[in-house]
Amino acid sequence: MYQWEYKTIKFFAQGALDAGRIDEREIEDILNELGARGWELVTILPGTRANGELWDFVAVLKREVSS
Questions:
Q1: 15-41 confidence digits (pLDDT tens)
Q2: Looking at the chain, which terminus has fewer C-beta neighbours within 10 angstroms, N or C?
Q3: Do 12 and 20 form a contact (C-beta atoms < 8 A)?
Q4: Quick one: pLDDT at residue 65?
């Protein structure tokens, strides 16, 4: 039977006036680094919204636990 461990990472949009603006390169770099360590992205959950614009979101990752 598989056993998993989970990790969550909160990403924030840039600047108070630029809510909703996301640095895709930063996210890609972080996810690639974690992927190289065995983490797999499960989902991305939207976070806080203000005036219909995204302020943050949470990435959920998992990896198998070695027995």
A1: 655 555 678 898 999 999 999 999 999
A2: N
A3: no
A4: 95
35, containing H or E segment = helix 24-36
Instruction: Give the whole-angstrom CA distance, residue 21 versus residue 37.
Output: 28
Q: Is 67 in a helix, a strand, or coil? A: coil
Query: Residues of 8-41 as b/e, b for ≥16 C-beta within 10 angstroms?
Result: ebebebeeeeebeeeeeeeeeeebeebeeeebee
Q: Does residue 8 contact residue 57 with C-beta atoms inside 8 Å?
A: no
Give the model confidence (pLDDT) of 48-64 as tens digits. 676 766 678 899 999 99
Beta strands 56-64; 4-12: pairing state: antiparallel
pTM for the whole thing? 0.78
